[in-house]
# Entry
Amino acid sequence: MSTITTAGPASAAAASAGTGPLRTIDPAAAVARTRPRTTITEIVSQTLIMAWRALKKMRRNPEQFFDVTLQPLLFTAMFAYIFGGAIAGSPHNYLPMLIPGIVAQTVLTTCMATGVQLREDMEKGVFDRFKALPMARIAPLAGPMVADLVRYLIAAGLTFLTGVLIGYRPGGGVLGVAGAIVLAIFTGWALAWIFTFIGTIAKSARSVQGISMLFLFPLTFLSNAFVPVTSLPGWLAAFVKVNPVSHLVSATRALANSGAVTSQAGWTLLAGLAVIAVFAPLSVRSYRTHM
Amino acid sequence: MTTTAAVDAVGLVKTFGRLRAVDGIDLHVQQGEILGVLGPNGAGKTTALRMLATLLPIDAGQARVFGVDVSREPHRVRQLIGITGQDASVDEDLTATENLWMFGRLQGLRSADARAAAKRLLAQFDLEEAADKPIAQFSGGMRRRLDLAASLITRPPLIFLDEPTTGLDPRTRGQMWDTIRDLVTEGCTVLLTTQYLDEADQLAGRIAVIDRGRKVAEGTPDELKASVGNSTLQVQLAEGADAELARQVVRKIAGAEPVLTPESGRMNVPLDTADRAADVLIGFRQSGVAITSVSVDKPTLDEVFFAITGHGADAEDDPEDDPDQAGAGAGHETVLEVQ
# Structure
């Protein structure tokens, strides 16, 4: 038995997939082939297939890229010229401080879109089939998130590019910038699990958006993303210092502007892992029971 | 060795708030048969089916699929079933081929095998020309066929079909019926829900009649029909004819309660034998009940449903509206239970 089970449903289905005449279905054999749970290999392959699906959808609905393309372009230019003079004396001097802040902000906004789109997707009929298939419950959640790595990459890359176009010269060089982008993508991906969780508990895509905004605004604006912490009153500075977004922004600044890997980067990684450890299981459980 | 039942469900219960959508239903499906679950909208058919298909938790009762417990080992059950719902559950943004390939891959087929299975199914379901078109351009019938194809990729031994032909035109419905019969020839077992009585009659070897979350009758189509007499006399009353008088005549002569459709003046009379029809007609003439047309037929399942539940299959009237009817429905269960 055990040697047969490793071949699993794949071999049986392979026999059925051939072009020759089909054998009569044998229920007893089908029962014998069933396996009690998904294996790690299956989870990975199912997640990648779900990522393939999400990428196909992105390519066919390019308007999904509006947020990750327009926001970096608009916000970078707008903030640089509006706040630059007031905060750093000139737009040019503001750029080393601003660009990493914008990177953090766009990555967070992208996370929110992950949750909203997942909720929209889950309302479609095809999710009924996913639920009835013998597949890992995490795959429909993790798959789109893997595909979203493309969106984070566009968002972070485009922000730096816009910055460079209006005069930003990152001191950390190509490697520093690449490190900053990778860190931002990782953090975005980790935080996206929070929004995925919201996606599985909220009643509609609209309410996901509403709830997410509630988190997003305080997190991005009550941080050091756009202003130096020293300019803030004490009570606010205290919050800003513990805000994980501040850690991300500080770490990204250090990487991009001087190519330095600081303790801030470590804290950011740790916070990201903690978020995944808490919210990934919560999301899967909520998807399994509520949906 | 006795074969394990494809479905063995005892006392299934599902409650939504105060509503007992499924209120203690037993369902048994033998391997290789088609069981039709028949009932009006909102009777609990879909809910019962979704519980069996692991899509809804079972609140009380127990269900086994080929001997595997549905609540305890849902993952194994999912490897044994295919389900096609009322709304097509395929991906609108992908093409037909991409859909089938994806569902095949998700169930462990290698890429080439998934592609071969997709090709085979698209040919079998007459969808080859639409293979590379996005589903958004599909007609309702094509969507439904693709949806069924998607349930068959790994050739599961048990297929759940939730109202497989609702909303399809008659020609497409006929094709779907042929496909469902073919499934059984291949060795599949089928549990289908329907609110079309002729569909259950056409396809199912056995029919379970569900009403308001309970099973009110079960048997072969013939057994169910026999319960309302072997023949039905259908009479079209002339305009202005006294329907109440006609009813009394039928009661006196045939000893049965006629089913009257007041709007159309049509009256159906259940008969033990077709010979009794002449007696009823003579009775009509003697009492001066004018008629415009007459036919004698085997009874339809519509009449069966009426006899069992006290209301037509289309009626969604609340039990409170008519306590007599509700009582009649419950009282019939034992009479018709044929196992």
Residues 170-185 of chain B form the longest helix (16 residues). Chain B touches chain A through 54 residues (CB under 8 Å). The domain at 7-224 of chain B is CATH 3.40.50.300 (Rossmann fold). The CA atoms of residues 3 and 97 of chain B lie 36 Å apart.
